[in-house]
């Protein structure tokens, strides 16, 4: 129906930061609060979708009617995202996933030593890339791009490299956009080469625009 255009659709949203543990008391993370991803999950549920929200550690409660899967590390988020993918109609990857994780996890607290310390990091697996590789024709894959410069170049690069249908780019250095705020300023890049530059809006309104695009793509795609 018009009010519930995503009824019967399975939508997976990832949100929040990941935490990469160094030892029992320390981790590497980022500034994501989950606001953007939770707004998407709430909006998808309001549009009638069955929503799975895969979330890193955040302080906000799960939106009503959404099934939540809590994870901590990039590796855990990878596992859950790949598990959820085969039955998903669309995936929106809002999470700020760590690109690097400590090469070694120390079971005991690392003690202070004189002088400087070097922390060895290794690459995490790229979830968006893995989903892009497995994507079927009827599925819609949306990535985000958190950039501090060259939005166009980096977003279009991600769109192509990761086989995504849409990239939602935000410049996280602009006030009113990115981490922690209740608003965002995004540019949406689509596979057909088109680009939508949106003004500052609440994250809930941004979520609505993204999901309206996802709905149009799902309805335009041929089911296998
Ligand atoms: O949570 P908020 O405080 O509301 O902040 C919102 C936000 C700034 C986190 C959000 O708007 C945003 O930009 N999310 C993407 C953050 C990010 O990690 O961007 P990226 O350019 O590093 O990654 C690009 C894409 O690849 C993302 O869809 C990311 O989920 C994905 N990725 C990244 C690394 C990795 N190992 N696997 C991935 O799938």
Layout of strands and helices, then pairs:
Elements lengths: L9 E6 L4 E4 L2 E3 L6 H12 L3 E6 L11 E4 L3 H11 L5 E4 L6 E3 L18 E3 L3 H8 L5 E8 L3 H11 L4 E6 L11 E2 L1 E5 L4 E3 L3 E2 H18 L4
Parallel strand pairs: 1-4, 1-6, 4-5, 6-9, 9-10
Antiparallel strand pairs: 2-3, 7-8, 10-12, 11-14, 12-13
Helix pairs in contact: 1-5
Bound molecules: ligand PMT.
Protein name: Coenzyme A biosynthesis bifunctional protein CoaBC
Keywords: Decarboxylase, Flavoprotein, FMN, Ligase, Lyase, Magnesium, Metal-binding, Multifunctional enzyme
Family: In the C-terminal section; belongs to the PPC synthetase family. In the N-terminal section; belongs to the HFCD (homo-oligomeric flavin containing Cys decarboxylase) superfamily.
């Amino acid at each position: 129906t018009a009010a519930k255009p995503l009824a019967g659709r399975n939508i997976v949203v990832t949100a929040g930061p990941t935490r990469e543990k160094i030892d029992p008391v320390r981790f590497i993370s980022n500034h994501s609060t989950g606001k953007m991803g939770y707004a998407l999950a709430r909006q998808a549920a309001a549009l009638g979708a069955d929503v799975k929200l895969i979330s890193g550690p955040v302080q906000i409660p799960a939106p009503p009617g959404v099934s939540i899967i809590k994870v901590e590390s990039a590796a855990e988020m990878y596992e859950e995202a790949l598990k959820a993918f085969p039955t998903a109609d669309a995936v929106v990857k809002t999470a700020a996933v760590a690109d690097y994780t400590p090469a070694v996890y120390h079971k005991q607290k690392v003690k202070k030593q004189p002088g400087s310390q070097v922390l060895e990091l290794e690459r995490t697996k790229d979830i968006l890339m893995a989903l892009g590789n497995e994507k079927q024709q009827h599925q819609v894959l949306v990535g985000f791009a958190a950039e501090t410069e060259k939005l166009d170049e980096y977003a279009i690069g991600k769109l192509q490299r990761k086989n995504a249908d849409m990239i939602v780019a935000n410049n996280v250095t602009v006030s009113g956009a990115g981490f922690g705020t209740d608003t965002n300023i995004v540019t949406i890049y689509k596979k057909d080469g088109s680009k939508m530059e949106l003004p500052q809006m609440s994250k809930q309104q941004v979520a609505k625009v993204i999901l309206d695009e996802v709905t149009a793509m799902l309805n335009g795609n041929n089911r296998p």
